[in-house]
C-alpha cells in the first residue's frame, strides 16, 4: 500500500518535503473525549490494548480529529515485561503496577525472552487492522520502550521519582543487570521486527527514564542496548527519544538511527551541533505551551520551527501531551506547523 501522505517518512530519511510533518507523542488517548468514550465502555486500559479492533479505532482517532501526519499504534511499552513473564496492572489515576518484580537471580531465572507471535499477537493484529483502515492516509508508527526504561519498571514495579532500586542494581549486581537488559533487548528487537512485518512504517524507541542516569552509566546500561536495536532494524527508519539525556547527545550521532527526539530542555541549535547534520530531529515544544492562548501557541510554534529550519525536522512536543490539554489547542499547534512550515519550505527552495 503506497502512502498518500509520506511526509514523516521522507523527513526521517532526510529527503526534501513540502512542509514539516507533525504528530504528538501520546496523541492516542487521554486528551480526546472520543477516546474516553471507548475506554469507559470497557473494564480498563488493558482490555483496550488487547482488543485489536478497538486499539485500531483509537489509533486512528487523532488522524481524523486532530489532522496529524502519522498514527502511533495504541499500546504500551509495558507489554514487553508482560510477555517476558511479569504481568502488569494499570491502576486508575495512578499508573502501572507490577505485582511481581525482579529482585535477584531467582526472579530473573523465571523470565523468558518474549515470544512475539504468541504473547504479543494482539498488537500485531491491531497494526494490521489499523493499516487496512488507514488505507495509506498517513504512516503508522510502531514503538517500544528502551531496555533501560523497561528495566526500571521490572525492578521497581511502578513509577518512581528516582528509580533508586533500579539504579542500585547497576552498582550491586552489574552482571545481573546486563543479563536482564540483554533479555529485554532481544525481546524488543523481535517485537519491533514483528511490528514492521505487520505494517509499521517507522519505529520509535522511548527511553523515558534516560535522564536519571549518570553519563557513564547511560552509555553502559542504556545506549549500548539501544545501539543493538538500531543496528538490528534495517527495514524502516528508527527514532530514538531519550528524555533528559542531554549529556548523551554527542554520542547519539553514532547511533544507527535516522531520527533523534529532543525534549523541551534541549536547545535546538546546540542539539543540532552535537548530533550532527545526518539525523532528523524531532520535537520539542514544551507540552505546557498548549495551556497558553492561541496567540502564545502560534508564536512559540513558529519560534520552534524557525529554530529547526526547514529540513530534517519532525514537529512534536518535547514529551507526551498532558491529559488535560484542550484538543482545540492541540489543533492550533498542528495547524500552525502546517501553515508556517509550508511558507518556510517554499522560500527555502
Ligand atoms: C513511560 C511510558 C509508559 N507508556 C509509554 C511510555 C513512554 C512514553 C512516555 O514517556 O510518556 C508509551 C505509551 N503509552 C501509551 C502509548 C500510546 C500511543 C500514543 O498515543 O502515544 C504510548 C506510546 C498509551 C497509554 N498508556 C497509559 C495510558 C493512560 C491509561 C488510561 O487510558 O487509563 C495511555 C493512553 C498508561 C501509562 N503507561 C505508562 C505510564 C507511566 C502510564 C500512566 C500514566 C499515563 O497515563 O501516562 C508507561
From TrEMBL:
Q: How does it assemble?
A: Homodimer.
Catalyzed reactions per annotation:
uroporphyrinogen III + 4 H(+) = coproporphyrinogen III + 4 CO2
| Species assigned in the record | Roseivirga misakiensis
HAMAP family, per the entry: URO_D
Q: Is Endoplasmic reticulum among this UniProt entry's keywords?
A: no
Q: Which residues bind substrate?
A: 26-30, 76, 153, 208, 319
UniProt pathway: Porphyrin-containing compound metabolism; protoporphyrin-IX biosynthesis; coproporphyrinogen-III from 5-aminolevulinate: step 4/4
Q: List the taxonomic lineage.
A: Bacteria, Pseudomonadati, Bacteroidota, Cytophagia, Cytophagales
Instruction: Give the protein's recorded name.
Output: Uroporphyrinogen decarboxylase
This entry's Gene Ontology molecular function terms read:
uroporphyrinogen decarboxylase activity
Would you identify the family this protein belongs to, as annotated? Belongs to the uroporphyrinogen decarboxylase family.
What are the UniProt keywords, alphabetically? Cytoplasm, Decarboxylase, Lyase, Porphyrin biosynthesis
The EC code for this enzyme is 4.1.1.37
Q: Where is this site: Transition state stabilizer?
A: 76
State a single Pfam family of this protein.
Answer: URO-D
- Could you tell me what this protein does? Catalyzes the decarboxylation of four acetate groups of uroporphyrinogen-III to yield coproporphyrinogen-III.
| Gene Ontology cellular-component annotations | cytosol
The segment(s) forming the Uroporphyrinogen decarboxylase (URO-D) domain are 21-30, 141-157
User: Where located?
Assistant: Cytoplasm
UniProt GO BP: protoporphyrinogen IX biosynthetic process
- What Gene3D superfamilies does the database record attribute to this sequence? 3.20.20.210
Amino acid at each position: 500500500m503506497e502512502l498518500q501522505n509520506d511526509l514523516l517518512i521522507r523527513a526521517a530519511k532526510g529527503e526534501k518535503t513540502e512542509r514539516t510533518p507533525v504528530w504528538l507523542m501520546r496523541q492516542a488517548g487521554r486528551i480526546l473525549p472520543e477516546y474516553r468514550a471507548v475506554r469507559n465502555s470497557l473494564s480498563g486500559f488493558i482490555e483496550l490494548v488487547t482488543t485489536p479492533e478497538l486499539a485500531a479505532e483509537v489509533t486512528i482517532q487523532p488522524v481524523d480529529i486532530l489532522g496529524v501526519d502519522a498514527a502511533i499504534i495504541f499500546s504500551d511499552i509495558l507489554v514487553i515485561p508482560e510477555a517476558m513473564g511479569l504481568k502488569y496492572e494499570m491502576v486508575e489515576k495512578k499508573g502501572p503496577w507490577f505485582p511481581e518484580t525482579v529482585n535477584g537471580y531467582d526472579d530473573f531465572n523465571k523470565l523468558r525472552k518474549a515470544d512475539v507471535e504468541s504473547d504479543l499477537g494482539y498488537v500485531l493484529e491491531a497494526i494490521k487492522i489499523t493499516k487496512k483502515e488507514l488505507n495509506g492516509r498517513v504512516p503508522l508508527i510502531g514503538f517500544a520502550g528502551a531496555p533501560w526504561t523497561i528495566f526500571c519498571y521490572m525492578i521497581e514495579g511502578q513509577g518512581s521519582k528516582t528509580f533508586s532500586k533500579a539504579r542500585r542494581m547497576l552498582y550491586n549486581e552489574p552482571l545481573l543487570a546486563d543479563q536482564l537488559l540483554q533479555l529485554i533487548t532481544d525481546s524488543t528487537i523481535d517485537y519491533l521486527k514483528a511490528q514492521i512485518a505487520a505494517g509499521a512504517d517507522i519505529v520509535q524507541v522511548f527511553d523515558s527514564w534516560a535522564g536519571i542516569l549518570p553519563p557513564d552509566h547511560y552509555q553502559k546500561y542504556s545506549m549500548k542496548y539501544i545501539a543493538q536495536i538500531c543496528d538490528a532494524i534495517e527495514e524502516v527508519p528508527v527514532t530514538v527519544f531519550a528524555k533528559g539525556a542531554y549529556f548523551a547527545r554527542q554520542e547519539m550521532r553514532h547511533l544507527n538511527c535516522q531520527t533523534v527526539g529532543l525534549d523541551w530542555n534541549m536547545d535546538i541549535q546546540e542539539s543540532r551541533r552535537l548530533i550532527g547534520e545526518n539525523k532528523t530531529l524531532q520535537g520539542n515544544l514544551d507540552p505546557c505551551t498548549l495551556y497558553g492562548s492561541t496567540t502564545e501557541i502560534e508564536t512559540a510554534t513558529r519560534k520552534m520551527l524557525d529554530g529547526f529550519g526547514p529540513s530534517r525536522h519532525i514537529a512534536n512536543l518535547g514529551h507526551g501531551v498532558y491529559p488535560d490539554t484542550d484538543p482545540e489547542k492541540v489543533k492550533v499547534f498542528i495547524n500552525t506547523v502546517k501553515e508556517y512550515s509550508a511558507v518556510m519550505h517554499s522560500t527555502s527552495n
